[in-house]
Amino acid sequence: MSTGPAVPAFREFASFPRRGLTIVRGEGSTLWDSEGRSYLDIGASHGVANLGHANPAVAEAVAAQVRELLHVGPGFDTPARLEFVARLRSIAPAGLDRVFLSNSGAEAVEAALKFARSSTGRPNVVAAMRGFHGRTMGALSATHRPELRAPFEPLVPGFRHVPFNDVPALEAAVDRSTAAVLLEPVQGEGGVHVASPEYLPAARAACDRAGALLILDEVQTGMGRTGRIFAGERWGVVPDLMAAAKSLAGGVPVGATFATAAVEERFAGSHTSTFGGNPVACAAGRAAVDFLLAHRLWERAERLGEAGRERLREDPAPVVREVRGLGLMIGIELRQRAAPFLDGLARAGFLAVGGGTHVLRLLPPLVITDAEWDRALGAVRAVLADG
Asked: Is 217 a catalytic residue?
């Protein structure tokens, strides 16, 4: 007797590759899977765990907040929200006196794009090749990688991409129709490419000449990752808008779009987020900023990152083409695909991430101990030598 067609098992939509591990616990720089195996997380879960996993200060702030208030609509202030905004003001670059709170890096970029178009009355955005700004439709339109864009086209019109670190190409692309130039100080997903000393200042000058706005995407480079609280400090460049997220609340989802008062004054329209600025995320963010400042983690990132790059460049394996980066944001460009080396590291108990098909990316927690970092660097060198 027929029982009818088989019903497929219910599961998550398969929209991205999985690592084949079930992670059940984390502490500091270490993660444990469901089989009891431990891993040193030298990818910081794609740059989220700057403060380490289950940071006690963040965990305590979240626990206290959920007992008081989980959520209230975005039209209301809460003590957690007011305190988080005050903390953000204390670390924001001078002149970025306004902040919009959302839930992710992509949302922070989306807000920046909307604010730029509205406040300038212009349609066009210039972004960089190899750049990555998120997967929502506006952020994806600013992202250059064709393999990410193609399945979802047509995307939002008005975006133009120019080669990263090519000052003449950037200057030629910015005109009176340009609302904004959107750049990462260090291209993370694109392979850890660092802006040249003259590139961001040239972008600032080009925007000023054309009356356009400069947006810095600091989603991955912020919160001490590159040896400064925000990477743009190294270039002495203050943008008109800046996106932050990932580690901003110690692992709790949050996004922030910083803006100048002038951008806010010219903004017309409405933009909000149901969960943006919710009390739990704000309590976590307040604790995360306090921890960052108390422990001056950007200085630790500078020291460990410089030592790490020096060690990785010493007598490199034949497969290594280049080692580059800033702070604890390191890219190892390989002469072959990075995936087998990521798998080899996982088998050895180390979890790194890719940065394009040929780049192995190291983004360890900024709280990683000297001994843990030494072990990680030794494991990376060993796996690369075996390849």
From this structure: yes
